Amino acid sequence: MKKVLFATCCIALLSGSLGAAAQKQSAAKKVQMQTLTGKSWSADNGNGTFTNPLFYDEFSDPDIIRVGEDYYLAGTTMHSVPGLVVLHSKDLVNWEFSSYCFDRFDDSDDFNLRNGKEAYGQGIWAPAIRYHNGKFYIFSNINGHGLQVYISDSAKGPWTHHKINGDIYDLSVLFDEDGKIYAVHKYGNVTVTELKPDLSGPVEGSSKVVIPEGNAMGEGHHVYKINGMYYILSADYSPMGRMQCARSKSIWGPYETCVISERESYGYAAGWSVGNMGIGRPLPEDGFKFQNNKPNGVNLVCATIHQGGIVQAPDGKWWGVSMQDFNAVGRTVCLSPITWVDGWPYFGLEKNLGRSPRTWFKPNEAVKTPQAPYERCDDFSGKTFKPVWQWNHNPNDKMWSLNKERKGWLRLHSMPAKQLLWAKNTLTQRAIGPISYTSVKLDASRLKAGDEAGLGAINTPYASLGVVKDEKGLSLRCYDQNTNREVLKPLAKSKIVWLRLWGDYDKSQLQYSFSLDGKNWENIGEQILSPYQLKTFQGVRVALYAFNKKKVNGGVADFDDFKVEEPMADRTANLPIGKTVRFFSLADGSLMDATGHGLMHSSGNRKDMRNQVKFVVEDRGKGKIALKTADGRYVYIAGAGLSGDVRLTSDSSKAEEFVWQDMLYNRCMLLSLKTQRYVGKNPVDGSPYSADFQGADAGMKNGCVFTWEEVE
């Protein structure tokens, strides 16, 4: 029977509950099938607005350019191949895949998991994409292999590769109007180096520190020349993530600097992390004792938006892209309006500089239907892999096949490895949040002694659910490297099994389950903690793998019907237009109360159902809303929006227009278009509501984030 793919995401076979509570059921508990038709995360809300992040999967170190009416975004791919990804957009919100710059790394031990060497967290990173004289250029570093440049006539490739000599890394590049080419690089001591016209290397003696240490500049620079001024954007993580900007009339300085984005995390705090698994550490052996750092819910660290670039739209407006450390999913990309004040490009709105809305108006309406950059589901019936797939390190092309040795299946030949992180020919995708289910069908009938094949979660610590073959036959093996626990379950008769991974990546939690018929699922093992770490320097990657622990080439594993389901990707119900709702402060649980005194205060009675605690969400078009109480009054903002200025009126023409900030999980903020700040109430001092909050603090408990519930 011909296989069918459903748009960007296939129908997945899921358990009855999508919440974390359902995942805590006993492994012996049978979970019945529920069929959900899904979609993949797009930032586009379909009403003229977008909600950050642009992607809910990792896209780190973003750099952006515009060519005509087209935007191009390049990002880091580390040790995964094909490498250096380029995306294309017409509206900065909806993106599609354009190309990778190369198919594989050079044939060295580290890129081939050979002779005890690996390239986790190394590889290629921090690209600078530029367009000059009809050609696209992408500059990037490969750890231990130097600076590279990839050149093409089209963002779709093919790309020509050249190595650039010299000690230049983590750079941005400027093609100046006089024909000279400059690289801006290094941390702290910001350095400018002129490059030779043929890009073979630096001009000898040209390197100069233009901003010395002591000026709070960081790394990940992005250089621009705007209206005759040179601008360098810089990300700093010390003592926490923020974005700096420097400007000068000369590329060589002197520069003045200021902060252009700070403390914007959309209420997220730093998540779980691993303290003893950083850059350059050896891969952890099974049994390694991980130091898991529990988040306290209030620290930001790099949960703020920081490293990224800016771009001018055809209408003259400016926009910024920046990455944000987003817990187990890794680093995501956010889009911010740029406001120029006194010659500085601040992220945010004119009356709230440095803070960016989570939901805002799209730059244009060029794309009518929201779209995701990738098709994540795969029935493996194509001639080539979908762009979402990448190999973990270089593949051995003689030891895998797609739709050839077995029609409609991916076949992985087992090669020697002691555990998942050393397994060659592991095929991966970035895990996608906030919550997703990933499942795959595995035919284990041709495994040989010592083989293990299955569905993994690449991380340090890693986790896996696979089928192992020993002298007794086949067994399911669920393994959590973080706790060094394994669960073995014999497979008496079945040689075909369905494997599934549930992830709540905001909470860094995973849970495995399996099925023998593709319909009824059973959890196996306990819930797994999967914290962020700096060894792989990536978020969790879902992996299809096969390897042999007996140090020989083993049998083959066949995979089919790879499916990804994103139950939170459809956000159409997150804005309750026309519904009557109550708002509860996430800070203290109090109800928003439109008092008879004519201003907004709070009620401590959570069961209060008076008309003045009920609000109708009225549609004012293009993502804007007004709030009308059930007793017929409208919320408006008086004066400067200070405490006591959130008022009530019977005149609908005076009603304030808000942009509903979707914070997911039935949470929201209300962004006043008059004050360009958020409605909120101090949770401790007893003051009435104001519309002057800059944004949510880490943990969302400062008084401007609400949970909402529909009451009518």
Oligomer type: single chain
The strand count comes to 56
Could you say which structural class the secondary elements and strand pairing correspond to?
mainly beta
Mean pLDDT: 93
Give me the number of helical elements.
1
Helix content: under 10%
Low-confidence stretches: 1-37
Beta-strand content bin? 35-45%
Largest sheet: 9 strands, mixed
Q: Tell me, briefly, the overall form.
A: globular
Give the N-to-C terminal Cα separation. 47 Å
Rg computed from alpha carbons, rounded to a whole number of angstroms:
26 Å
Descriptive account of the structure:
- The chain has one helix and 56 strands.
- The protein has 712 residues and is an all-beta fold.
- Strands 7, 30, 33, 34, 36, 37, 38, 39 and 43 form a nine-stranded mixed sheet that branches.
- The two termini are 47 Å apart.
Write a short abstract of this structure.
Helices cover 1% and strands 45% of the residues.
How is this fold's topology laid out?
Blueprint: E1 12-15, H1 20-23, E2 30-31, E3 33-36, E4 49-51, E5 63-67, E6 70-75, E7 80-81, E8 83-89, E9 95-102, E10 124-132, E11 135-142, E12 146-152, E13 160-164, E14 172-175, E15 181-185, E16 190-195, E17 208-211, E18 219-226, E19 229-236, E20 242-248, E21 256-262, E22 273-274, E23 292-293, E24 305-312, E25 318-325, E26 331-341, E27 344-349, E28 352-353, E29 359-361, E30 390-392, E31 400-402, E32 410-413, E33 415-416, E34 427-430, E35 435-443, E36 451-458, E37 463-470, E38 473-480, E39 485-490, E40 496-504, E41 509-515, E42 521-529, E43 541-548, E44 556-565, E45 580-585, E46 591-594, E47 600-603, E48 615-621, E49 624-629, E50 634-637, E51 646-649, E52 658-662, E53 667-672, E54 678-680, E55 690-693, E56 706-710
